[in-house]
Amino acid sequence: MGQRAISVGVAGAMGVSFEEKLVEPPWFFKTLAPWAGVAPSEKIGKPGSAKFPAPLPDLAIGVGRQSAAYLKSLHKQSAGKTFTVMLQDPKMGLSVADLIWVPEHDSLRGDNVISTLLSPHRYSPAVIQSFRDNPLQEIASLPRPHIGLIIGGNSKAYRYSQENIDKFIAAVSSLKSFAGSFLVTCSRRTPPELEKALRDVTSDVPRYFWDGKGHNPYGDFLAHSDYLVVTADSVNMVGEAAVTGRPVYVFFPEGGGRRINYFHNRMREEGITRLLPDCFERLESWEYPPQYAADTIASEIVARWQLSQ
Q1: Left (φ > 0), alpha (ψ -120 to 50) or beta: where does 154 sit?
Q2: What is the pLDDT of residues 177-234, one digit of tens each?
């Protein structure tokens, strides 16, 4: 889902019609991706191709290592007429695509590489405003300020020990003195004990705690939160919160790493995020321009695409 959000965010920001294609290479080619190339059975650009028959597209955007070989094949089979864009490091050199985007915390650089601090996503400022103009009744009826709790979970970089969970819950508990209500959403990675603790600690205050059923109010939560608390394990969630222009507190469980530490340090340097206090004595207010990288990336793609014609 994260890769789809990146690609759809960029394509949407370009303002062009697009078709999504999920590549599903055979086992051998999937296991050795991206170095094995594309299976002959794909028949790219030829009659009988299930996903990429002729005529081939003018522009192809891929994300993730499974798509890298397809981009190279599309470029070759179209005799260079398909302008190819790779989102994220393809792990196979700069020749994989005409243009490559990577987040700033990745080390890949080159003449055909662009980078931005934040990753692209589908929640543009216009989309956020549409949520604000059309509030859900469940949110409109809650007292303000709305505190959004955007909760991730265990990842390659971070782990949630019981000590971390207790520390986070203590901080949320101290927030209750300043919150009108909570807007809470967990992810598939959220440890069950953390989700239960969040339900318990917010049970005595007005809240909208999404249970994973029916309409997903994630975008509504972003739009209507006056303050946001986001866990550090997801660069994407922190970046999505930054489109709001509203204060974003970040909680750090155990762990970290060079790349993700760089990202979080830069976000604090830019005045976008602040560390979640162990105990709130007051709510701080700060402002910054809404952050939306998809527009920047889309503009660069169009400019480079036009130059290639």
Answers
A1: beta
A2: 999 999 999 999 999 999 999 999 999 999 999 999 999 999 999 999 999 999 999 9
Q: Could you state, in order of their start, the residue ranges of all structural domains in the chain? A: 2-122+296-308, 125-275
- Kindly report the three-state secondary structure assignment for every residue of the chain: CHHHHHHHHHHHHHCCCCCCCCCCCCHHHHHCCCCCCCCHHHCCCCCCCCCCCCCCCCEEEEECHHHHHHHHHHHHHCCCCCEEEEECCCCCCHHHCCEEEEECCCCCCCCCEEEECCCCCCCCHHHHHHHHHCCCHHHHCCCCCEEEEECCCCCCCEECCHHHHHHHHHHHHHHCCCCCEEEEECCCCCCHHHHHHHHHHCCCCCEEECCCCCCCCHHHHHHHCCEEEEECCCHHHHHHHHHHCCCEEEECCEECCHHHHHHHHHHHHCCCEEECCCCCCCCCCCCCCCCCHHHHHHHHHHHHHHHHC
The model's pTM is 0.90
Which CATH topology does 125-275 take?
Rossmann fold (3.40.50)
What is the C-alpha to C-alpha distance for residues 151 and 191, in angstroms, rounded to an integer? 10
